[in-house]
Design brief:
- The chain is an alpha/beta fold.
- The chain has one domain: Rossmann fold (3-Layer(aba) Sandwich).
- The protein is about 40% helix and about 15% strand.
- It is built from 14 helices and 11 strands.
- The strands form 3 sheets. Strands 3-2-1-4-5-6-9 form a 7-stranded parallel β-sheet, sandwiched between helices.
- Strand 1, helix 1 and strand 2 form a beta-alpha-beta unit.
- Helix 3 crosses helix 4, helix 4 runs parallel beside helix 5 and helix 10 runs parallel beside helix 14.
- It is globular and about 55 Å long.
- It starts with a strand and ends in a 6-residue tail after the last helix.
- The structure holds NADP nicotinamide-adenine-dinucleotide phosphate (NAP).
- The site of NADP nicotinamide-adenine-dinucleotide phosphate has 30 residues, from helix 1, helix 4 and helix 6.
- NADP nicotinamide-adenine-dinucleotide phosphate binds next to helix 1, helix 4 and helix 6.
Length: about 325
């Protein structure tokens, strides 16, 4: 029986599809008709189904005959105007109901770990909404709440290294705000030896690689211990920005210094940006949120048999060995 991946054209969904193909398991990838999906077909035997979660007939067609669903679709970095929050508020309830009615065995949802002031961050509230819909739907589920992705949070401070070799990087999605942000800051680390962060150089985050997040989602789809649970999971170590700068410095062969901005700056930018673009305002709210430690143990990974988890130094060394393509 087939695993349906919803959000398959995205960064995590693409890796979930790749791992399913590698394991020789049948995979159906739901992608919007105008999304890039050639890389999914190139992985091998992938049934690519065109569809939009906001179209009920697409949802029913995709769900029919699926044994498990791994859903990573989200609107944090929307490709289209007016999309922020819609897939979570309208698409997921329809998908979850269709999955329950079709007898899907387990529904796995990629969520996020809790931030301080979660209740005031709209993107976080979208996640909690989907979690509540799932928990009350009657379907068997697992919610995976990972800590900070290496591919995003090691790049946002000013580096392009974490994006090397990525087939569908979230930070390269067609959204005006992240495009402008990356243009202004994307090479500060390699070019000027700067890591621009929120809070202080001592803030610690449990960075986790998307390779490991995808493996966790797949384990959560089948492992008995994941049934009807919310699984908070971090990477193998919680590093401070100062420690990350030291690793960058060694790999780049230059001094790398941390430049920390007050979370008040991001909070102010959020206020200015939200009326213009709620999604851009949300990104600033997340930046303000990561001014606090996000230390989450990796225990769930061990419990589900996933590991060894990639460390930041290994991740950046692997990236540095690849050609600079972006
Ligand atoms: N970054 C972090 O550190 C971090 C940490 C913890 C959790 N998370 C969470 O992990 C998720 C990130 O996943 P990701 O990186 O794979 O996201 P992504 O690269 O931004 O991909 C988003 C996916 O959702 C799809 N999608 C959006 N609207 C859709 C719709 N109406 N119908 C069907 N598909 C739709 C997109 O399709 P198109 O390609 O057609 O737009 C795309 O495939 C987010 O929910 C984020 O909050 C992130």
């Amino acid at each position: 029986m087939v695993t349906l991946v919803v959000g398959a054209s995205g960064q995590v969904g693409s890796e979930v599809v790749r791992q399913l193909v590698e394991q020789g398991r049948p995979v159906r990838a739901l992608v919007r008709p105008d999304a890039a999906a050639a890389h999914l077909r190139a992985y091998g035997d992938v049934e690519v189904v065109a569809g939009d979660l906001l179209q009920p007939s697409d949802v029913h067609r995709a769900v029919a005959g699926s044994e498990h669903i791994v859903a990573t679709a989200n609107s944090v970095i929307p490709r289209k105007r007016g999309e922020f929050g819609r897939v979570e508020r309208e698409g997921y309830p329809a998908l979850i109901a269709a999955a329950r009615d079709a007898g899907v065995e387990r529904f796995v949802f990629l969520s996020t770990t809790a931030f301080p002031h979660d209740d005031r961050i709209p993107g976080q509230q979208h996640k909690r909404f989907v979690e509540r819909v799932l928990a009350t739907s009657g379907i068997e589920y697992a919610v995976v709440r990972p800590a900070a992705f290496m591919e995003s949070w090691l790049a946002l401070p000013g580096s392009s290294l974490p994006l090397r070799g990525e087939v569908a990087p979230t930070l390269s999605r067609d959204f005006w705000f992240t495009r402008a942000f990356r243009k202004a800051t994307g090479h500060l680390t390699e070019g000027r030896g700067m890591l621009t962060v929120s809070g202080s150089p001592d803030v610690r985050l449990s960075f986790i690689a998307i390779r490991d997040v995808a493996a966790l989602l797949l384990a959560a789809a089948v492992h008995p211990a994941a049934r009807n649970r919310i699984l908070e999971v971090g990477g193998p170590e919680a590093l401070s920005w100062q420690e990350v700068a030291t690793i960058y410095g060694r790999i780049l062969g230059r001094d790398v210094k941390v430049s920390a901005s007050s979370p008040k700056l991001f909070a102010a930018l959020r206020t200015v940006l939200t009326p213009l673009s709620p999604a851009a305002g949300n990104i600033m709210a997340l930046q303000a949120g990561v001014a606090n430690d996000m230390v989450i143990p990796p225990d769930v990974a061990a419990e589900l048999g996933v590991g060894p988890l990639l460390r930041v130094a290994e991740f950046l060394e692997q990236k540095a060995a690849l050609p600079a393509d972006r």
